[in-house]
Each structure stands twice: as structure tokens, then as C-alpha cells.
UniProtKB/TrEMBL annotation:
Stretches assigned to coiled coil: none
Identification of the protein by name: Deacetylase, histone deacetylase/acetoin utilization protein
Domain Histone deacetylase: 19-289
Keywords from the UniProt entry: Hydrolase
């Protein structure tokens, strides 16, 4: 048994100078985990090519065809936040496959991770907010349609509401969506998750962690999931330029500990996808993300 982590060189992408999406974290995070000895090269796997039928179980055919043929309108491209290119689409499909394969490893080992993913702003028919396809939804639907699980709990603790995930699963009882996010942050129009907890600006560690404990523990009994997908964005940090919340790096680590220990204690397999992180200092982003992997090793292995 070992912690398995999806990673591909395709996760990295050349973006115009000054672009606010920190693409370098996808190279630096694996390097940091290897350097400090949290993992070895054996922990990483490179995703295979994605079978498009699993995308079409979640996303509309017309939208996916436009993506593959690079035919999004200027307005649609602008909403995604990325310049459209074949390299971007290749990156996106590898991320989707990475989360599917990580989910399968989680069923086997209890937990697995995707260095990328957490693309919760992608809807059935459109992308926005640095998300073109929704790996959370694609992975959940893959598990359900292959009869590998019966009930999935999505725990989305990115600072931004998982609006795309909420829309995709609004009429699907087999998936329960829980989003705890900045109430006044993007997206301004919120979709309806099964459980939404809107947080005030500048919320501190203690209040945040108390709220998480208050809602997560009873949620396990209520939902009775046999699989968890955890979107663990680190844009909750007080240093994040898009976040508005007030968590310290230690508070973010304790957030992850609560979720991972809850999964372990209840023997529920969990797949973690990284989500956002936009602190000006890349070292803050890497440290907060690395804590999730350190905890996974300590708690599960």
C-alpha cells in the first residue's frame, strides 16, 4: 500500500506573462514532496489517455465538441480565464483522467491524490473560472456508472463555491455536494449545493474549524457515503489575493486533518484534488498544498 498521486508534465502550461493563475505550482509541489522525503518517485503515476465517453457522461456533447475543435467563442474563452489552445485541452483531459485513476487507487488504498484537478466551476455546458471540464463530477459519475460506489460525498473547501459541481448534480441523489466558501466571493451568483455554508470575509482559524466540525461530522451520518471527493483549495489562506478569508497555513492544515481523519475513522475512501491557491508568495501555496500530502501519509500509511 502507498499513497498514489496523479501527475503529468502536461499539467504545466505556458501562459502569458502576468497571468494570475500560478501554473508553476504543478512543477514545484512534486519537487518539494520528493526533496523533503514525504514521497518517492514510486508514489507518482502519469494518467493514461482519457476515454471521451466518461466526459460525455457529465458534459454536453456540443460543448465538448467545441472544446476539442477549439471553437469556443471569445466570450466563452474569456469566462474560462485561459487562452484556448490544443495544449490546454490536452492538459484538461489528462487532469480528468488523473482524478478518475486516483479515485480507483483510493478505493484500493483508502486515499489517493491528484496534483491538479478540483475544477469545480465547469458546468455541463460551459467552463469558467479556470475550469473547462469538471473532474469532480466526471470522477463521481465514473464510479457510480461502473457500480463501484453507491453514494458520493463531495467536500468542497475551496474559497469559491463549487457552482459547476452543484449544477451538475442538482438532480442526482447519488451525489451529495457540500460547499463551504466565501459568501461574498466569486461566483457572485451561487448555485444551490445540497449544503452551502457561506463564510464571512476575514474569518479566522478557530471559527472556521468549528464550523467545519459542526457540519461535517453529522453529514457523514446523514449522507452515509461510501466515497468522498475532497476539493482542498488553499485559497482560504489570509495571504491569498483572491480569497478574502483569514486562515493561517496551520489553520488550513488543521482543516485538512479534520477531513482526512474523518474519512479514515469512518473507513470511507477519499480522493483529493488540489483546487485553487493564489497567494503572491508561491512558497505559501506550496507549503499549504504539501501539508495535505504530509497528512495523507501520516494518517493513512
Amino acid at each position: 500500500m502507498m499513497l498514489k498521486i496523479a501527475y503529468s508534465p502536461l499539467y504545466q502550461l505556458d501562459l502569458p506573462e502576468g497571468h494570475r493563475f500560478p501554473m508553476e505550482k504543478y512543477e514545484l509541489l512534486p519537487e518539494q514532496l520528493l526533496y523533503e522525503g514525504t514521497v518517492t518517485s514510486a508514489n507518482f503515476f502519469e494518467p493514461k489517455d482519457l476515454d471521451n465517453r466518461w466526459v460525455l457522461n457529465t458534459h454536453d456533447f456540443d460543448y465538448f465538441e467545441k472544446l476539442l475543435n477549439l471553437r469556443l467563442s471569445k466570450s466563452e474563452i474569456r469566462k474560462t480565464g485561459f487562452p484556448l489552445s490544443k495544449a490546454l485541452i490536452d492538459r484538461e483531459t489528462h487532469i480528468m483522467q488523473g482524478s478518475i485513476e486516483a479515485s480507483l487507487f483510493a478505493l484500493e488504498y483508502g486515499i489517493a491524490m491528484n496534483i491538479a484537478g478540483g475544477t469545480h466551476h465547469a458546468f455541463t455546458d460551459r467552463g469558467e473560472g479556470f475550469c473547462l471540464l469538471n473532474d469532480i463530477a466526471i470522477s463521481a459519475n465514473y464510479l457510480l456508472e461502473n457500480f463501484l460506489v453507491k453514494k458520493v460525498l463531495v467536500i468542497d473547501l475551496d474559497v469559491h463555491q463549487g457552482n459547476g459541481t452543484a449544477q451538475i448534480f442538482e438532480n442526482k441523489d447519488e451525489v451529495f455536494t457540500f460547499s463551504m466558501h466565501g459568501a461574498s466571493n466569486y461566483p457572485m451568483h451561487k448555485e444551490k449545493s445540497d449544503l452551502d455554508i457561506g463564510l464571512p470575509d476575514k474569518i479566522q482559524d478557530d471559527q472556521y474549524l468549528d464550523l467545519l466540525q459542526l457540519h461535517l461530522v453529522p453529514l457523514i451520518d446523514q449522507v452515509q457515503p461510501d466515497f468522498i471527493i475532497y476539493q482542498c483549495g488553499v485559497d482560504v489562506l489570509d495571504s491569498d489575493k483572491l480569497g478574502r478569508l483569514g486562515l493561517t497555513i496551520q489553520g488550513c492544515k488543521e482543516r485538512d486533518r479534520i477531513v482526512l481523519e474523518t474519512a479514515k475513522i469512518n473507513q470511507i475512501p477519499i480522493m483529493c484534488c488540489m483546487g485553487g491557491g493564489y497567494s503572491p508568495k508561491i512558497s505559501n501555496i506550496i507549503e499549504a498544498h504539501a501539508n495535505t500530502y504530509r497528512l495523507a501519509q501520516d494518517i493513512f500509511f
